[in-house]
Amino acid sequence: MRLMLIWILNALALLAVAYLLPGIHVEGFISALIAALLLGLINTLLRPLLILLTLPVTVLSLGLFILVINGLLFWFAGSVLKGFEVNGFWAGVMGALLYSVFSFVLSLLLRQKISQQDR
Description:
Helix content is 81%, strand content 5%. By secondary structure, the chain is mainly α. The longest helix is centred in the C-terminal third of the chain and has 30 residues, at 89-118. The protein starts with a helix and ends with a helix.
């Protein structure tokens, strides 16, 4: 149940990013759900492999290359899915940053809500 709620919160975060950034477009909530699922799968399966392969560049850039990886993966998800569009690399970088901030804040609020209910 918690996993479904996080998935829905990530879709809402994606809709908020699309609302705030002009280079990112999401057709509707269903497209946002599918895009959030794909982004979760990409971040779980592909991102660690890319970070491992680009470790020397990441170390030399003091970790800033991870922003490039995140932007490229966000852009990739936008190019694969219909209904989710990312117009360029910099829109992908900004979208990935905002998406991660929104997802973090929403997950934090969810954890606080759950911990208050457990008391």
